[in-house]
Amino acid sequence: MSRVDRILSNIRRALTDPSQKRWLDSRLLSLIDEAQKDLATKAGLIRKTNIPVTVSADSSEQSFPSNIYSLTRVTDINKEPLRLATHYELDEENPSWENDTGTELEVIVYDLLSNEKYKVYPIVTAQTTINISYIAYPATITSANKNLEISEDNDNALQNFAIGMAFLDDVDTKDIEVAGEYLGLYKQALEKAIVDSANNYVRLSSREVDYNE
Fold first, then answer.
1. Residues 193-197: contacts with CB within 8 Å, 24+ apart?
2. Which of 17, 50, 106, 213 has the smallest C-beta neighbourhood within 10 Å, fewest atoms?
3. 23 Cβ contact list (under 8 Å, min separation 6)
4. pLDDT tens digit string along 134-175?
5. CA nearest 8: which of 185, 148, 212?
6. Contact by Cβ (8 Å): 124, 105
7. Which residues pair with 102 in a beta bridge?
8. Which is it for the CA torsion 70, 73, 74, 77, positive or negative?
């Protein structure tokens, strides 16, 4: 039995719907997927570190990996940190920045509303490489054979979210009340995951600094 199968079984037991009479697997899988994405992005549970990305020559606009949710750090080819700035900040400093060219990157221009696209300043005249660290979206769960990307410590939270949301599909008042209880448990798990992930990230970052020194 796969991990997703086990979670599905636990959800169906709580819903008292072992034969898919009220909820199809496709609906429950979509809820498991939604929960994983919510946990992974809000708590930063999937962190990619020092991923090389090619910066094309003679182009201001560039592309990040498609699974990027939030950029946390960028270094140049020599592992030196690059400045992150918004379009607004660069416009205020230099209205013609999008046309400037040079041989070395200075700034990565990045806005949260366009995660997969970014611009560079200045436009480099030769292809180069940057290394990015970021919080990632997990791959979509469409079947029980798919792998979950967050740890098994979060399985109860995934189950509670899916059970709560499934009960909200029903208009029965009692089911809505039960839904609130499960979603309350999910909220508690999410809040704990956010704190734990932040603390863990700080500890790991400190170790990296000590090691490099």
1. 193/39, 193/42, 193/43, 193/45, 193/154, 193/157, 194/42, 194/43, 194/44, 196/43, 197/43, 197/44, 197/45
2. 213
3. 12, 15, 17, 166, 169
4. 999 999 999 999 999 999 999 999 999 999 999 999 777 788
5. 148
6. yes
7. 124
8. negative
Rounded CA-CA distance 176/170 in Å is 7
> What are the structure tokens assigned to 118, written together?
């970014």
Q: How many CB atoms lie within 10 A of CB 102?
A: 12
Helix ranges, 138-172 (H): 155-168
- Judged on CB neighbours under 10 Å (0-12, 13-18, 19+), 66 is exposed
Q: In DSSP terms, which residues pair with 61 in a beta bridge?
A: 119
Please state the pTM of the whole predicted model.
0.86
**H-helix or E-strand spanning residue 200:** helix 173-212
Q: What is the pLDDT of residue 202?
A: 55
Residue 129 Cα to chain centre, angstroms: 23
> Which tokens in the block code for residue 134?
């970021």
Is the CB of residue 27 less than 8 Å from the CB of residue 157?
Answer: no
Top-confidence residue, 213 or 103: 103
Tens digits of per-residue pLDDT, 54-75?
Answer: 999 999 999 999 999 999 999 9
